[in-house]
Amino acid sequence: MKTDPRRPRRYRLGALSGLLAAGAGLALAELAAAAVRPEASPVTAVGGAVVDRTPVALKEWAVRQFGTDDKLVLTLGIVAVLAAIAMAAGLLAVRHLPAGIALAAAFGVVGAAAALSRPEATWKDALPSLVGGAAAAGVLYLLVTALRRPAPGPTAGGLDRRGFGRLVVATVALSTAAGYAGRRLGAYGSAGATASRADFVLPPPAVPAPPVPAGAQLRIPGISRFVTPNKDFYRVDTALVVPRVDADTWQLRIHGDGVARPLTLGLRELLARPLVEHDITLTCVSNEVGGPYAGNARWLGVRLADLLREAGVRPPSQGGPADQLVARSVDGMTLGTPVEAVMDGRDALLAVGMNGEPLPFQHGFPVRMVVPGLYGYVSACKWLRELRLTTFSAYDAYWVRRSWAARAPVKTQSRIDTPRSSAELAAGRVAVAGVAWAQHRGIARVEVRVDAGPWHEARLGEADGDDTWRQWVWPWEASPGRHTLKVRATDRTGAVQTGERAGSVPDGATGWHSVSVSVSGR
Ligand SMILES: Nc1nc2c(c(=O)[nH]1)N[C@H]1C(S)=C(S)[C@@H](COP(=O)(O)O)O[C@H]1N2
Ligand SMILES: [Mo]
Question: pTM for the complete prediction?
Answer without folding.
Answer: 0.92
